[in-house]
C-alpha cells in the first residue's frame, strides 16, 4: 500500500467495514482522496440510518457512489475564513468572492464585467444567453461601498478581474482554481464554479425564506428545483415549520 493510502486508511478505517485489499483497490480505481471523501459520505449515511441496503457491503456502496454534488457553504465563519485567505493574497480575488456571494451571479458572468458595469450602480445587468432577456442582479448597500473602494483609481473601461499579464479578464478555469484553493485551505472539500451562487441562494433563503425571488433570479423552472439547487433539504424545511406557530 502506498504511503498516501496507508495514511487515509488509518484516518478513516474506523468509519466503515473495509478490508485493506478493498481499500487499496478503491484507492487505485478512483484515487485515495476521492476514496476518503466517499468514506466520509457513507459514514454520514450510516449515522442517519440511510445506508443503501441494496448494497451488500460497504465496499459495494462506495463503488456505487458518484461524485458529490457541489453544496453551498453554510457556515458563516468558514466564509469569513475564505475571505481572509483571499484578502491576504489578492484584492482582486477577494472582491471576486465578495461579489459572487452577494449577488448570485454565475462565475462566467462576473469575469467579463468592467468598472462601468458596477460603479455607481444599484444593480448589474446581465443578458441571459438562453432567452436574450436582460436580468438585473441587485447590489446591496455594503457591496456598493466595497465597489467604490475596489475601483478607486481604475478607469471605467477596465475589467474588474483582469489578468496581471494580459489585462484581459481572468480565465474561468483560473478563477475557479483560485476560489477552490482558498476554500480547501479553509476546510471546504467540495467546491465548484457554482459554489458562490449556491451559497448566496442558501443564505438568502435562510434569512428571508423567499424562494420565489430566487427562482426568478436563477431562472429555474420551479421552486423545488431552486430549493434543491441551494441545498435546502426537506428536513431543514420541516425543522423550520416545527418551530413556527401562531
From TrEMBL:
PANTHER family documented for this protein: INTEGRASE_RECOMBINASE YOEC-RELATED, PHAGE INTEGRASE-RELATED
Annotated ranges, domain Tyr recombinase: 68-242
GO MF annotations in UniProt: DNA binding
Domain of life according to the entry: Bacteria
Keyword terms: DNA recombination
Gene3D superfamilies: Intergrase catalytic core
The name this protein goes by in its record: Phage integrase family protein
GO process terms (BP): DNA integration; DNA recombination
One Pfam family cited in the UniProt record for this chain: Phage_integrase
InterPro entries: DNA_brk_join_enz, Integrase-like_cat_sf, Integrase_catalytic, Tyrosine_recombinase_XerCD
PROSITE patterns xrefs: TYR_RECOMBINASE
